[in-house]
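Posting for a labmate who doesn't have an account.
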Amino acid sequence: MDSLQNHLLVAMPHLADPSFNKSVIYICDHSPRGTMGLVVNRPMTSAKVAMILNALGMDIGDQPLPLKEVYYGGPVQPGLGFVLHSAEYDREVSNRISDDLALSTNLDVLEDIRNGIGPARYRLSLGYAGWGEDQVEREIANGDWLVIPGTAEFIFDKPDTTKWEQAASRFGIEIAEMGGQGGAA
């Protein structure tokens, strides 16, 4: 596989790091310099959306933003917001990942959403998952991650509570029943 971009990393059960345990990560960028992705199955349940938007410098004003949840995107730069969205919203601030998905780091996209001119499908994540040169490839070779193609339908339509199991089931694996250690044989 030349590029992991537009793929999902599915954490294996032995990956005990609390940042990634039972995580599904959508890879937004993969190059020889490193890899960047967003965890797509962890809504920040204790977070209040209005408080988070205010902390990001978004005045929520009288017209509320149609945003029910904010997601944990990963442990790197947790104060930085990312909007993963459908690709029909094509602005200079959007980086197209695939035919169906794009990523915006400029939070003007949230104003466009509030004004009814933003993307049809979106999610706001705080922080991201990042790997240095060849790091994610070593983790995959070590058996820490399964890799499957990513789709907008999977990211936006599958319940967050079952994404991890559903992603692994594409391999015919009942991942919740697995245990043990990772590593090369």
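Reply:
Got it, the structure tokens are right above this. The beta strands are 7-11, 24-31, 34-39, 70-72, 76-86, 94-96, 101-104, 122-131, 145-149.
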